[in-house]
């Protein structure tokens, strides 16, 4: 997580006014809250991807087995 208080403090120590120091720290925090993925979101996305991948692998396997069966049979 982003430490807004620490960032604002470092900016004040570098010579920024309170308003100058707090504005960028707050803006970065707002962006981080809305733009960063949570662990739960990433886990759910990976689970959906794994499920889709399993389904496609099964479909490909069925097609390959069917093609081999036609070749051997024919």
Description:
The protein has 74 residues and is mostly helical. It contains 3 helices and no strands. α1 packs antiparallel against α2 (18-35). The radius of gyration is 26 Å and the shape is rod-shaped. It starts with a helix and ends with a helix.
List the helices and strands and how they pair.
Blueprint: H1 4-13, H2 18-35, H3 39-73
In short:
With 74 residues, the protein is mostly helical. It has three helices and no strands.
Main sheet, how many strands, which sense, barrel? none
SS strand fraction? under 5%
Shape summary: rod-shaped
Termini separation: 63 Å
Q: Count the helices. How many? A: 3
Topology as a string of helices (H) and strands (E): HHH
**Which parts are unreliable, with pLDDT below 50 for 5 consecutive residues or more?**
none
Mean pLDDT equals 88
Number of strands: 0
Radius of gyration: 26 Å
């Amino acid at each position: 997580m982003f430490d807004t208080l620490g960032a604002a403090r470092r900016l004040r120590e570098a010579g920024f006014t309170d308003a100058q120091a707090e504005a960028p720290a707050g803006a970065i925090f707002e962006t981080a809250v809305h733009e960063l993925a949570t662990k739960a979101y990433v886990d759910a996305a990976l689970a959906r991807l794994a499920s889709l991948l399993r389904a496609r692998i099964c479909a490909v396997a069925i097609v390959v087995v069917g093609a081999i069966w036609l070749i051997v049979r024919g």
